[in-house]
Amino acid sequence: MLRNLDMTALRSFVAVAQTGGVTKAAGFLNLTQSAVSMQIKRLEENLNLNLLDRSARSVTLTAAGEQLLGYARRIVDLNDEVYSRLTSHEYEGELTLGVPHDIVYPAIPHVLRSFNAAFPRVRVHLLSSYTTRLKELFARGKCDMILTTENSVAPGGETLNETSLVWVGAPGGTAWRSRPLKLAYEHNCIFRGQVQRALDEAGIGWEMVVESDSSRTVEASVSADLAVHTSLKGMSPPYFEEIQHGGALPELRSIGINFYCADVTNDEAARALARAVKQAYRAHQVISTTTLPVDLRERSNSSAAAASLSA
């Protein structure tokens, strides 16, 4: 007898597997946690397999779950492509989205992928820079929408989330133990002055051993354990890790993730991109999934489009 896999359950499984938890997947899918759990249970019952190892603190895949994940991704992608091709309303144009480099990952690549599936002929130009420059470009009309990391929000902006600023360094690194503390920052990093003041107030000596206009230079130096840096919690690249300093370094204040957008009342594509960006950062999720955000799934097209990244 032929049996069919539940597409909704597969979509939830992909989201859980790639976000690392039911709670994050539920937020991304705009479902309740219990609904996602029930869908995973139904999928396991349908296959008569245990797909998730629930014995650890974090959700991990069983061997059967790992094998299913590759199939599930392709099935979900193909489903979305078929649906979008047959219901497509083509839009053309270009949108410019500005994002500070330190919060591009992990959300933005997957927001762009989802948006591009929904609007394949709209080119998204991703401009990665520091907050001050992005606000200047937005004020001059050079960006359609921007994200910023700030202590407060300016008129016309919207705070999507507040998250902790944390110390980061090389995985297993020891640079954070050195005194004076070795720091690596871009010249125009908005966190730089705050960190220096926090260290001064804590009576901890410091020296700026790496200064650059290039985030890549800073990242290479920190990942080599030559210095430490700061990042918004949960948004550092995989070659950094949050430093568990046990009070040896000062606690840092929370930072707002703000969103500024030009008038997009008459532009459906721009409205969809704005909704997707706000959804991702309001949830403050570590998203790595083929699943489309709810507001993009409603009118998804095909899965090809262009996005560019400039420093």
Keywords:
311 residues; Arc Repressor Mutant, subunit A; D-Maltodextrin-Binding Protein, domain 2; two-stranded antiparallel sheet; 12 strands; globular; disordered C terminus
Write a structural description.
With 311 residues, this protein is α/β, with parallel strands linked by helices. It is 39% helix and 23% strand. It has helices spanning 7-19, 22-29, 33-47, 63-86, 107-118, 131-139, 192-201, 215-223, 268-283, 294-297; strands spanning 52-53, 60-61, 93-100, 122-129, 145-150, 157-169, 181-186, 206-212, 229-232, 241-242, 254-261, 307-310. The longest helix has 24 residues, at 63-86. 41% of the residues are buried. Mean pLDDT is 85; it is low at 285-311.
Q: How would you spell out the order of helices and strands?
A: HHHEEHEHEHEEEHEHEEEHHE
Shape: globular
The CATH topology of the domain at 93-163 and 256-310:
D-Maltodextrin-Binding Protein, domain 2
DSSP strand count: 12
Radius of gyration: 21 Å
